[in-house]
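Quick one: structure for this chain?
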Amino acid sequence: MNVFTFDIETVPDVASGRRLYDVPDLDDDDVARIMFHQRRQKTGGSEFLPLYLHRVVAISVCLRSGETFRVWSLGEPEADEPELIRRFFDGIERFVPDIVSWNGGGFDLPVLHYRALLHGVAAPRYWETGDEDSAFRYNNYLNRFHSRHTDLMDVLSGYQGRAVAPLEEIAVLLGLPGKMGMHGSHVWEHFREGQIGAIRDYCETDVLNTYLVYLRFQRMRGRLSREGYAAECAVLREGLEKDGRRHLLEFLDHWIAAGGAGEG
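Got it. Here's what it folds into:
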């Protein structure tokens, strides 16, 4: 098993906002307010910015490889965006794993595409579609229906927009902890307060929820038996206990208390 589950957290790209709206002398908060206002005007109410105006401030991953499981956030807390994105694509280059996400095809990966384009980050294995390696012709990271990237939200909804569900509700439905510590809508506020550690912790618990949904999905599709699923949950529990960081142990406690650990 060589699975790389990921999630990103973003804030408004105020540097690009300054250029787009020609407000070079405004501070970050005022630029963000303009960006949100412009978006409300265009959409009729939603402040959710276009994907090319999201700046990545955290990328968290779960790596299940060999006999081990590990969850962490890429780079040091002070790492800049280009380093985070390089580390993400370097992981794909090094391990060539199956990658797993929740709405990664609709949000995380397009954001990473735009930011890699902006920062000049090379990712040849990720963009491979068979021209250099024939093994990628019928199974690559870019084709929606290939398995090198499994977007669980897409797959479980049957690729029907009206059938999509939020990760938190599916997680809670399955006896998982769901959101812990904050909500994605609060990331900008926490970022402005310098709480990057809290953002990274939150992102790591989100990616744990995604990975555990993935294990249930693998059981549902017959790739894991009941015993195999329990064994994978045991590997995850051991990994979290060995890591020992408080937010991961709290996640583990919530998961066990909810009755989801190893069941299903």
